[in-house]
Amino acid sequence: MDVAKKSVVLIQAGSPPAEIFDALGDYPSWFCNTLGLPIDQVEIVRVFHGEKLPPVDPLRVAIITGSFAMVTDRLPWSEATAQWIRDAMAVEMPLFGVCYGHQLMAHALGGRVGYHPDGAEIGCHDIRLLAGATDDPLLMHMPMRFAAHLTHMQTVIEPPPGVKVLAASDHDPHQIIRYGPNAISAQFHPEFTTDVCAAIVRFHAETLREEGKDPDVLLKQISATPDATAVLPRFVAQAL
User: Fold this and answer.
1) Cα angle at 58 between 53 and 62, to 5 degrees?
2) Does the predicted TM-score (pTM) go above 0.90?
């Protein structure tokens, strides 16, 4: 990978709330730490601030981040990014969507996104690979069950036609979706550390209690998620 050409593009769809930002930094640093790349060697496009998306390019890799926005709000920058995803798919540009990015890819390509009928999925939870994952080049060497960090209120209600759903959790049946040979997305967060996950649980504590969930129990369940984390750098390595 020629990092001097910034082969990795981070499509930033939001930032964490101020108290998390001040303590733990912004999304680009989380992703770059996971990828093992200096932040100045990744092109960061803050689409939620109206920054212009780059031309689609099959020789580059794009990662679409999470957000505290909602895909169903169809904000102008989000819908513009959805069109960019369709354009990127047309040239088989490598794409990896995370959380909001996962939902936005599904929305852009003909799926349906909405609020999960059972409320939020937040904390550290088990993900299980489905039968098709055993032949997937990105997932074939992973354990069939692994821990991952999650935070989402909306979800992929219906995946786009023709895709492969490769993983599920007890809460959400669409944890990993493959759209084509170079395009995949995950509802969970490979870029989260245990500190980030704990901060997210604390931030949503009131909502969790309203849904009958115990934030203290969720905090105790947080652990490292090496298998989930490894998915993202492996995708980039395979793509480039």
Assistant:
1) 45
2) yes
